[in-house]
C-alpha cells in the first residue's frame, strides 16, 4: 500500500523525522492560509497524486506542471486553484491521468547537497536493510548500475535492532561530521523507528538534503507498507486512497478476490496464485494475451465466482474467458454449480471456456454440460488454453 | 524412506479447533495420518473428533504424545508466537500453513530460531505429503491442506512454492503413473523456513527418490541458487517449471513473495539458470509431468 506525500509528511512529523514545514490543502483558501504560515523563503505547491514525474506533468486543462515554486500566499492560492479538481498526466499515470483533490503547501528549502536514504525489508538477508548513497536526487537504479561503489547497504539484525555503531558507520560513509553527523544520526534513528512501528516494507528518501544553514532534512519520501500487517496498523490503513487504484482491483478486494488488470483480451478466473500465474503464461504460450490475473482463492463460493465474472466483464477489452479450477479438496460439482449459477447472474455474451479438474470432476462436467449455458469445456489445461485463443480469433 | 515425514510420523496441530485447522485435521485423519494431538490455548482436556486429545500448550502435547511435527493453522496475528512455541517444545519440524504473516514477524522468527533443532516449512504453504500405499494413497502422512487422494506412492520428489500449481503437477505425475516420494510446499512468502535448495539436498540424499520436480515462481533468487547447487551436486534428474512469465514487474501476484522488483526475480532469469544447470524446464504448466519423463530419459 502506498500513501500520499502529505501523509508521509504527517508521519515524519509524528516520528520527529526532520522535513520542511508543510500543510495539506483541499481548497485554494486553505492553500492561502497554509502559505501564510510559511514565513521564510519561497513556497512550493505540489499536486498530491501517487505518481512520479509530477513536476514535468501536464494538467488536462492545459496547465503545465504539478509542482510550482511561488513567493506569496496569493500566488499559492492561484496555483492551487488551477490544480485542485483537475487531472494531472505524468509519464507514470498513463493517458487517463490522475485527479488532484489536494495540494501540499510546503516551505521551499535551499539545497547544499543531495543524498539518498532508504530502508527496506530485504528477503535475501532476511532483515531490514538501510541503503545510503552520496548520490541523491537522481534515479538510484542508475547509480547502482553505473557507480555501485557509491551505494552502501547495512543489514540491521531483526532482533537486536539498529545499533549506534551502524549509525556511526553510515554517517562516515556519507561524509557527515560534527553537528550534521548528530542531526543525521537522530534522523536515521527516528526513521528506523517509524519504519518498524508502522510496518513499512519500504521508506525511500530521495533526496535527503543538507541546507546552506547546516540542516539535514528529508525532502521527499516514498512509502510502501506491508499489506499483511495492516490489521495492526489502523491509522496507516485509513490513509489508503482507493481513488488511486484500479477500481476493479478495489471491487475485487471487497469480495476477497485477488485481481490485477492487464492489457490483454483473454480474462482468466483461477483458484490459487501459482496456478493463476501459470494460466496467464499458457494463454500467452498459445498466442493469446491475458487480460488479468485473478485468484479466487482455495475455497471460492458461488457469490465470489459471480462477482469475479462481473469484474472480468467490466473490462471492455475482454473477448473471451478461461476458467481454470483445480478442485483439490472442493467438490468439482459444487464449483460447477457455482459457475452455472454465476452465469445466470451476469450477461455472458463472449466465449467461455472451462477447464475443471479434481475431486468429483465427472459430476462437475455433467453439471456444466447439462446446464444449457453456452460454454466450451477443455479436456486439460493445454486444450483449454488453445480453445480460448481460437475462440476469440474466430 | 521419503523425506521429512512418513506413515509413522506423529503430528500435532496448532489451531485444531479453528474451522480451517479442524477441517484439515479431519482430512488428515481420514487419510490415515497419525494426528496425535491438537493445541488450542484454553481448550485443554477436550477432544477433537472424539479421538484426538487437545492440550493448552505445545509443550504438554509433545511430552504427552511424543509428537515430532507440528502443523500450524493459527491466524496471522498469533502465528509468529505459535511457530516459536513449537520451536520451544523441540519439535523436529514445524509446518506453518498460515497465510498473511507480517514480514517483520517472520524475520524475527527466523532469527530467533537460529541454532534450534527445529526445521520450519512455510509459512503460506500447502504443507507436506508423503503418500501412503493404500487406495488413493491412503495410509500416508498428509500435513497441511493438499488433497491426499491425488497422490500415489513412488519415486518422484516434488518441491514447490505454490499450492494448486503443486496439485496440478502431482495430478499430472500420478496420471502418468509416476508416484511421489514426498511433496513439499515451501510456501509463497518472501521469508520462509525452508528453501528449494534445502529440499533438493534432502531429495538427493533420499534413496527412495529417483527424480525431482522443482516448481518455482517469480520473485527472489531461490530457484537460481537451487539450480546452481544442483548443477554441481545433484545426481538425480530434475524437471522444473516457473510460473509468472507474463506477470508485470512491480506487482505482487497473489503470493506476497511473487514480485519482480528492480528487474530481479523474473521467470526468464530463473528458467535460464535452470536450463544452464541441466534441468528440463516445462514451457507450460500442462507439461510439468512430461518434462519429468524427459528428464528421466
Q: What would you say this structure looks like, in words?
A:
The complex is a heterodimer of chains A (394) and B (297). With 394 residues, chain A is of the alpha+beta class. In chain A, 36% of the residues lie in helices and 24% in strands. Chain A contains 13 helices and 19 strands. Chain A has helices at 5-14, 28-36, 73-83, 140-146, 164-174, 178-197, 234-237, 247-254, 273-285, 302-313, 332-345, 361-369, 381-393, and strands at 22-25, 43-47, 58-59, 67-70, 87-89, 98-99, 103-107, 113-122, 127-133, 151-155, 200-210, 216-218, 221-225, 258-261, 266-270, 292-295, 320-327, 352-358, 376-377. In chain A, strands 8, 9, 10, 11, 12 and 13 form a 6-stranded antiparallel β-sheet that branches. Chain A has a 4-stranded antiparallel β-sheet with strand order 1-7-2-4, sandwiched between helices. In chain A, strand 17 (320-327), helix 11 (332-345) and strand 18 form a beta-alpha-beta unit. The longest helix of chain A has 20 residues, at 178-197. The radius of gyration of chain A is 26 Å and the shape is elongated. Helices cover 33% and strands 22% of the residues of chain B. Chain B has 2 domains: 10-121, NAD(P)-binding Rossmann-like Domain (Rossmann fold, 3-Layer(aba) Sandwich); 152-296, Succinyl-CoA synthetase domains (Rossmann fold). In chain B, strand 6, helix 4 and strand 7 form a beta-alpha-beta unit. Chain B is an alpha/beta fold. The chains are: A alpha+beta (394), B alpha/beta (297). The interface between A and B is large, with 52 and 59 residues.
Amino acid at each position: 500500500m502506498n500513501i500520499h506525500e502529505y501523509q508521509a509528511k504527517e508521519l515524519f512529523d509524528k516520528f520527529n523525522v526532520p522535513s520542511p514545514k508543510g500543510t495539506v490543502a483541499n481548497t485554494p483558501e486553505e492553500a492561502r492560509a497554509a502559505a501564510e504560515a510559511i514565513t521564510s523563503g519561497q513556497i512550493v505547491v505540489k499536486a498530491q497524486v501517487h505518481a512520479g514525474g509530477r513536476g514535468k506533468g501536464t494538467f488536462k486543462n492545459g496547465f503545465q506542471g504539478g509542482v510550482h515554486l511561488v513567493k506569496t500566499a496569493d500566488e499559492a492560492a492561484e496555483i492551487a486553484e488551477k490544480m485542485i479538481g483537475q487531472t494531472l498526466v505524468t509519464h507514470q499515470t498513463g493517458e487517463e491521468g490522475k485527479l488532484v483533490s489536494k495540494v501540499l503547501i510546503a516551505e521551499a528549502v535551499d539545497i547544499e547537497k543531495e543524498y539518498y536514504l532508504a530502508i527496506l525489508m530485504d528477503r535475501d538477508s532476511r532483515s531490514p536493510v538501510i541503503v545510503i548513497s552520496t548520490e541523491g536526487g537522481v534515479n538510484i537504479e542508475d547509480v547502482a548500475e553505473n557507480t555501485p561503489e557509491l551505494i552502501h547497504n547495512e543489514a540491521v539484525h531483526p532482533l537486536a535492532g539498529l545499533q549506534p555503531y551502524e549509525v556511526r558507520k553510515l554517517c562516515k560513509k556519507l561524509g557527515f561530521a560534527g553537528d550534521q553527523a548528530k542531526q543525521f544520526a537522530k534522523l536515521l534513528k527516528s526513521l528506523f523507528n517509524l519504519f518498524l512501528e508502522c510496518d513499512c516494507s519500504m521508506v525511500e528518501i530521495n533526496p535527503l538534503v543538507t541546507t546552506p544553514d547546516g540542516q539535514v532534512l528529508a525532502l521527499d519520501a516514498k512509502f510502501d507498507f506491508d499489506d499483511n500487517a495492516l490489521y495492526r496498523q489502523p491509522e496507516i490503513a485509513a490513509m489508503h486512497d482507493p481513488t488511486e487504484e484500479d477500481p476493479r482491483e478495489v471491487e475485487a478486494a471487497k469480495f476477497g478476490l485477488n485481481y490485477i488488470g492487464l492489457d490483454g483480451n483473454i480474462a482468466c478466473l483461477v483458484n490459487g496464485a501459482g496456478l493463476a500465474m501459470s494460466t496467464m503464461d499458457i494463454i500467452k504460450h498459445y498466442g493469446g494475451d491475458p487480460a488479468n490475473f485473478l485468484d479466487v482463492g482455495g475455497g471460492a463460493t458461488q457469490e465470489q465466482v459471480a462477482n469475479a465474472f462481473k469484474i472480468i466483464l467490466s473490462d471492455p477489452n475482454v473477448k473471451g474467458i478461461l476458467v481454470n479450477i483445480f478442485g483439490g479438496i472442493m467438490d468439482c460439482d459444487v464449483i460447477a454449480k457455482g459457475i452455472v449459477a454465476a452465469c445466470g447472474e451476469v450477461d455472458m455474451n463472449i466465449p467461455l471456456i472451462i477447464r475443471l479438474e479434481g475431486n468429483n470432476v465427472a459430476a462437475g462436467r455433467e453439471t456444466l454440460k447439462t446446464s444449457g449455458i453456452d460454454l466450451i469445456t477443455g479436456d486439460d489445461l493445454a486444450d483449454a488454453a488453445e480453445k480460448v485463443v481460437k475462440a476469440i480469433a474466430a | 524412506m521419503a523425506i521429512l515425514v512418513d506413515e509413522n510420523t506423529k503430528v500435532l496441530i496448532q489451531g485444531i479447533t479453528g474451522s480451517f485447522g479442524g477441517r484439515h485435521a479431519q482430512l488428515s485423519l481420514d487419510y490415515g495420518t497419525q494426528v496425535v494431538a491438537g493445541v488450542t490455548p484454553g481448550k485443554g482436556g477436550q477432544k477433537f473428533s472424539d479421538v484426538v486429545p487437545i492440550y493448552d500448550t505445545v509443550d504438554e502435547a509433545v511430552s504427552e504424545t511424543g509428537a515430532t511435527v507440528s502443523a500450524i493453522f493459527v491466524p496471522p496475528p498469533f502465528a509468529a508466537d505459535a511457530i516459536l512455541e513449537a520451536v520451544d517444545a523441540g519439535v523436529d519440524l514445524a509446518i506453518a500453513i498460515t497465510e498473511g504473516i507480517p514480514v517483520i514477524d517472520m524475520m524475527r522468527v527466523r532469527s530467533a530460531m537460529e541454532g534450534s533443532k527445529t526445521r520450519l516449512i512455510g509459512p503460506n504453504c500447502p504443507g507436506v505429503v508423503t503418500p501412503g500405499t493404500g487406495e488413493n494413497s491412503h495410509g500416508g502422512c498428509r500435513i497441511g491442506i493438499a488433497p491426499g487422494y491425488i497422490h500415489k506412492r513412488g519415486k518422484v520428489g516434488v518441491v514447490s512454492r505454490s499450492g494448486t500449481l503443486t496439485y496440478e503437477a502431482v495430478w499430472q505425475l500420478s496420471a502418468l503413473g509416476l508416484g511421489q516420494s514426498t511433496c513439499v510446499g515451501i510456501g509463497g512468502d518472501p521469508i520462509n523456513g525452508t528453501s528449494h535448495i534445502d529440499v533438493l539436498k534432502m531429495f538427493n540424499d533420499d534413496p527412495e527418490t529417483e527424480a525431482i520436480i522443482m516448481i518455482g515462481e517469480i520473485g527472489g533468487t531461490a530457484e537460481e541458487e537451487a539450480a546452481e547447487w544442483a548443477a554441481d551436486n545433484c545426481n538425480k534428474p530434475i524437471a522444473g517449471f516457473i510460473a509468472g512469465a507474463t506477470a508485470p514487474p512491480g506487482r505482487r501476484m497473489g503470493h506476497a513473495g511473487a514480485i519482480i522488483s528492480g528487474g530481479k526475480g523474473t521467470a526468464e532469469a530463473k528458467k535460464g539458470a535452470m536450463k544452464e544447470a541441466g534441468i528440463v524446464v516445462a514451457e507450460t504448466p500442462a507439461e510439468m509431468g512430461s518434462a519429468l519423463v524427459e528428464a528421466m530419459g
